[in-house]
What we know:
alpha+beta, two-stranded antiparallel ribbon, 80 residues, two-stranded parallel ribbon, 3 helices
Amino acid sequence: MEHSVSLMTPSSPSHRPLAAGGTNDIDDVCGNWRLANQELAAALRFRGYDAHFAGGCGFHSMAHGGATLPSALRWLWDPA
Length: 80
């Protein structure tokens, strides 16, 4: 949440950030990782960044990262 609030300040959106999370991602006393990544991507889009959230039904693991990697790379290299 702190990161999404700090992104509300003016900046130059020259990067294309990607955030990822799954429905079974970490949810503990430090917070919910999926929700935090969704908020981060929304804050970046609000500031004009071409940000993307790669969601899925997994959790922070190589399997989930491998499943979302192809679409994430297509988005990253899209000449939009």
